[in-house]
Amino acid sequence: MQAVEVKSLLEAKLPGTQVEVEGEGCNFQLNLISDELAGLSPVKRQQQVYAHLNAWIADGSIHAVTMKFFSRADWAGRS
Question: PANTHER family per the record (predicted)?
């Protein structure tokens, strides 16, 4: 699976979320920018994302995923 595929999939499934993906092959670092996700508990955030990736994790297309969550204001304020 390619980074652009992960980005497209998650942005389609999580409306209002900007997804920045780094990595290749089957290991990805996700930066998810969403006020809605940022307001959830850490476990709930991850559940929202894994719900859409589980099929690819199960078939081995994705092996490792790390996630960071940002509100829109936090993302804009990064240096």
Answer: ACID STRESS PROTEIN IBAG, BOLA TRANSCRIPTION REGULATOR
Q: What structural domains and CATH numbers belong to the chain?
A: 3-73 (3.30.300.90)
The model's pTM = 0.90
78: tokens are 């990064």
Structure tokens at 56: 């690819």
Spatial contact of 17 and 35, defined as CB atoms under 8 Å apart: no
Residue 25 and residue 2: Cα distance in Å, rounded? 6
| Nearest in space to 71 (alpha carbons), one of 1, 11, 13, 17 | 17
Q: Give residue 1's pLDDT.
A: 77
SS3 content of the chain, % helix, strand, coil (to 5): 45, 25, 25
Q: Would you mind telling me the total number of residues written for the chain in this entry?
A: 79
Given a contact cutoff of 8 angstroms between Cβ atoms, the answer to whether 36 and 22 are in contact is no
